[in-house]
Amino acid sequence: VVGKSTKLLSHLELGDKILDVVGPLGNDIHIKKYEYPVVIIGGGVGIAPCYPQAKELKEAGNKVISILGARNTGLLFWKDKMSSVSDEIIICTDDGSEGMKGVVTVPLTEIIKREKISIVIAIGPLIMMKFVALTTNGSGDLPKVKTFVSLNTIMIDGTGMCGGCRFSTLDGGVQFACVDGPDVDGHIVDFNNLLKRANRFIDQEKESLECYDEECRA
What we know:
Mean pLDDT: 92
Oligomer: single chain
Number of strands: 9
Protein name: Dihydroorotate dehydrogenase electron transfer subunit iron-sulphur cluster binding domain-containing protein
Structural class: alpha/beta
Helix content: 25-40%
GO molecular function: 2 iron, 2 sulfur cluster binding; flavin adenine dinucleotide binding
Strand order of the largest sheet: 4-3-2-1-5-6-9
Number of helices: 7
Pfam families: DHODB_Fe-S_bind (PF10418)
Distance between the termini: 21 Å
Domain Dihydroorotate dehydrogenase electron transfer subunit iron-sulphur cluster binding: 152-189
Strand content: 15-25%
Largest sheet: 7 strands, mixed
Low-confidence stretches: none
């Protein structure tokens, strides 16, 4: 919960209704049979959208290697579901309470060293996706691996008109997550710029939540 909208969503229970849902928006990852295994990395709540992609890629005949990361074991979920659609699953926690202690790029590096990988898919916090992209961009000792990231920038109208979801690319260009994404080539994203932009509404979100809480208390 970061603002009024997510606070209201957090109160929903099974059977409650949402008036309207707009989607799907933008582009997705092409599901097909790849030559080499596929690595899917889910961080925190990003594990949820990893499941349907892993499921479809597995059904397309791919070897799926899944890496799930969270701050601690209490924040991990859907391990059984991800295991059911994965040939190999690796758990990472920041505090070592389950699986490997450390970040998801550690097992990712080991996997890329041991075998060829067709694509990497990363969904989770921006900082996690940034370092996944840095690991697979071929700038170090590891080979370059095509990497998709799912950008969770703020979206308002979903058509690219408002510009709220825009993100800069490393070549100086601009794209829109709702139209060009949300799944994009992780190696073109200017993550440093995006991380700064991601925090620009923190004060407004806090103010909105405080006003809502005051209304509830009244």
